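Fig. S4 source data, part A: sequence.
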Amino acid sequence: MFDDESIRQRRLRQATDHLTREFEGVWSRETIGRFVVECEDELAERGSGRVVNLLPLLAERFARERLWALAQAEGRVEKTMPEVLFVCVRNAGRSQMAAALTHHLSGGAIGVRSAGSMPGEEIHPTVAQAMAEIGVALGDGFPKPLTDEVVRAADVVVTMGCGDACPVYPGKRYEDWAVADPAEQPIERVREIRDDIRLRVHDLVTLLSPAHSGR
């Protein structure tokens, strides 16, 4: 019978196995294993994924996102679409809505990531409700800390109330959206914030579309 630590280690090995197959020829198993453990430690420290049994799964998702971003930033894989990074403080409301709306309105033609300068434990329930009302699911999103790789991989970085927490790299487009925080707001107010973000995202998607950019 496995004790809790044995189960945790087995699940982390399984996560590493999955990602090793996915990143064959891009990253070594040693690199992938290190990222998986780092991501689990980071999420556990910040309280993301309060159910301990979910941490290895969330660590796998977080590691996957970081490894793809790093591979893009270092030119190990080809970038096939523009990449946008949305950053807010908790990554539990504004940036999650913006990321989901960008994916939805672009029809998946724009790569999207989101992160938080001080990520929370879970997405606000009213945010998920407001998005479901317009038929846009938040999918497997969960609050994640901001890391260097995702900034480096982005073509556009949009900050939403987190000030100067995001590092600045040359050759990227930076925008700061003054959007209200939906945390602890009634659903009526969250809907207003959602609609504000949707208008901003529509303009960004139009800007990044091939017809506009000439690509």
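Fig. S4 source data, part B ends here. Helices lie at 4-22, 29-46, 55-73, 94-105, 125-133, 148-153, 187-208, 210-213.
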